[in-house]
Amino acid sequence: MAQRLALRRLLSLTPRGPPASPGRAFGTSAGRRSTFNVQDGSDFQDRVVNSPKPVVVDFHAQWCGPCKILGPRLEKMVAKQEGKVVMAKVDIDDHTDLAIEYEVSAVPTVLAMKNGDVVDKFVGIKDEDQLEAFLKKLIGA
Amino acid sequence: MEMNGLAPVPDSYDYDLIVIGGGSGGLAAAKEAAKYEKKVMVLDFVKPTPQGSSWGLGGTCVNVGCIPKKLMHQAALLGQALQDSRKFGWQFTEEVKHNWMTMTESVQNYIGSLNWGYRVALRDNKVTYENAYGEFVGPHTIKATNKRGVEKLYTAERFLIATGERPRYLGIPGDKEYCISSDDLFSLPYCPGKTLVVGASYVALECAGFLAGLGLDVTVMVRSILLRGFDQDMANKIGEYMKEHGVNFIREFVPTKVEQLEEGTPGRLKVTAKSTTGDQIIEGEYNTVLLAIGRDPCTRKIGLDKVGVNINEKTGKIPVSDEEQTNVPYIYAVGDILQDKLELTPVAIQAGRLLVRRLYAGATTKCDYVNVPTTVFTPLEYGACGYSEETAVEKFGEENIEVYHSHFWPLEWTVPSRDNNKCYAKIICNIQDNERVIGFHVLGPNAGEVTQGFAAAIKCGMTKEQLDNTIGIHPVCAEVFTTLSVTKRSGESTLVSGC
């Protein structure tokens, strides 16, 4: 996707998700604190692979229509889990190495990770009930 | 291991094949080579335009060529369809307007998915990809520089140059500072507004065409003829149609300077131009100036001199054998940079694939550059395969060719009362060879779809009689080709009045 246009979209349009924030949740306003944008490979290592809590990783792209629907929906369902799971967002064009390492082909691809391992995964859009079940399974298992 | 009867080659290179350029030709060749278990690397790097535009993996066609062009052409066609629709009973009271940003974002989103698709395809085929600028530094050795300036050296047994071309600038004051090219147009983050298109290439006419179709005020400044190299009878009809549909033409002028009157998105530019036939000077004011005067091969700064690859010094093109080999036996080239070959995506893809099969799978088939069909996506589309009328006359002699032609009126245009006797069909036959069809030309909607099938027939050596024996499909535009009877030689009228 052409870079001048992508930059303008970043600067002018409404933000796609909550700004990056520390991983620790304090219970209140859990929505904002339970989701963050991965900054680079070592950030991923610290906050996803080494995370004490289970993590859902949302691989998305600016040019992907369905991602714009799934992203907010997943964030909402993660927020409802009261801090038991956090969500990491990875833009596959910014972090292609990560996307390739985790074998992402199509987007959105969502991975469920626990103790650094991928324990579950889905590709494409899901509705709220399906997401709830996905998250509950990750937390409970 | 011997190769082509030359001295044995050591088995110690980093890669079997390094492809420089991740466009249509380069990617097709790389993926094909990987199928034969070869160790392949693709280097792709886009140097930003003077305006700062850049793009991802896939080359010109995907990012700043065929794909966005056809999508924007479609946007313009839909505008026309909306107008026609009222006559077919659709009722809507509001004025229909076009939003440039909505269209451009949709187009760029699709391109983004293609860029990613190519990354995945290379990964799945186990081809190494680096977003780095490749240049030769010595025999079998290439230096790859990424956007942070980090350099790495790689060696390979063979190389494929597929670096493509970039738009040419005029070399006048203000050209790089204020003008845009097709490299910028398809991702322009603001509507271009009143636009001057400089050039008469298919890029110029296609862009002018869809910009006008979207409702913009468009002027095309032409130095001499339209669509050089194409059948001029057809080129003139294309120009006439565009003129009748609101595109302004300034003929026989060239810009001499571009100045900025006001900054903005878009701003205001003043263009001064000089006549090519006299001393007359004119000035005009536009929001955007789009240069489409030609494209130059990216062959001058990739170290070809370090490895002794000959290029045409004047044009930058690389002469190759009919097996796409340069004068250096282990270096090959494919795509738009080739001298005396066609600048088309499917040609580059086919040439790349066949080359790789000859190198690694023992195949012998060479790329056939004859009778390659093309389509120009101007507002009235033009599909062609084989000889233009001029070239046929030159090669065979006027008395030895028979030109059959006819106008036609697409059924879909009748109800909304659109342009009768503008669409046109023409075939050129070789009298001395059973009236074999050696040239096919169609001006009308869906010209590409119409032409594709006839290209296969021409490859099979179809004659006029076989064409006449083919029964038409009704009611479609293409059926006109099955009932051509009027020759140019007879001088009879070809105008039609309906079914």
From TrEMBL, chain A:
Q: Keyword Isomerase on this protein?
A: no
In this chain the Thioredoxin domain maps to 24-140
- A GO BP entry: cell redox homeostasis
Pfam families according to UniProt = Thioredoxin
The ranges of region (Disordered) come to: 13-32
Identify the gene encoding this protein. TXN2
Its taxonomic path starts at:
Eukaryota, Metazoa, Chordata, Craniata, Vertebrata
Q: Which molecular function GO terms apply here?
A: protein-disulfide reductase activity
> Which InterPro entries does the entry link to?
Thioredoxin, Thioredoxin-like_sf, Thioredoxin_CS, Thioredoxin_domain
Which family does the similarity line name?
Belongs to the thioredoxin family.
Query: Which source organism?
Result: Pipra filicauda
Q: What is this protein called?
A: Thioredoxin, mitochondrial
Recorded GO cellular component terms are: mitochondrion
| Keyword list, A-Z | Disulfide bond, Electron transport, Redox-active center, Transport
From TrEMBL, chain B:
Give the molecular function GO annotations.
flavin adenine dinucleotide binding; glutathione-disulfide reductase (NADPH) activity; NADPH peroxidase activity; thioredoxin-disulfide reductase (NADPH) activity
Per the UniProt record, which EC number(s) apply here? 1.11.1.2, 1.8.1.9
* UniProt enzyme class: oxidoreductase
Pfam (any one): Pyr_redox_2
Q: Which reaction does it catalyse?
A: [thioredoxin]-dithiol + NADP(+) = [thioredoxin]-disulfide + NADPH + H(+); H2O2 + NADPH + H(+) = NADP(+) + 2 H2O
Domain called FAD/NAD(P)-binding: residue spans: 15-352
Please tell me where FAD binds in this chain: K70, G134, D336
Asked if the Swiss-Prot or TrEMBL record annotates the protein with the keyword NAD, the reply is yes
Instruction: List positions binding NAD(+).
Output: G199, A200, S201, Y202, V203, A204, L205, E206, G294
Cysteine pairs forming cystine bridges in this chain are C61-C66
Q: Which GO terms describe its cellular component?
A: cytosol; mitochondrion
- Stored InterPro entries: FAD/NAD-bd_sf (IPR036188), FAD/NAD-binding_dom (IPR023753), FAD/NAD-linked_Rdtase_dimer_sf (IPR016156), GSHR/TRXR-like (IPR046952), Pyr_nuc-diS_OxRdtase (IPR001100), Pyr_nucl-diS_OxRdtase_dimer (IPR004099), Pyr_OxRdtase_I_AS (IPR012999), Thioredoxin/glutathione_Rdtase (IPR006338)
Q: Which UniProt keywords apply?
A: Disulfide bond, FAD, Flavoprotein, NAD, NADP, Nucleotide-binding, Oxidoreductase, Redox-active center, Selenocysteine
Cofactor comment = Binds 1 FAD per subunit.
The Pyridine nucleotide-disulphide oxidoreductase dimerisation domain is annotated at: 372-483
PANTHER family to which the protein is assigned, alphabetical: GLUTATHIONE REDUCTASE, THIOREDOXIN-DISULFIDE REDUCTASE
Name of the protein in its database record: Thioredoxin reductase 1, cytoplasmic
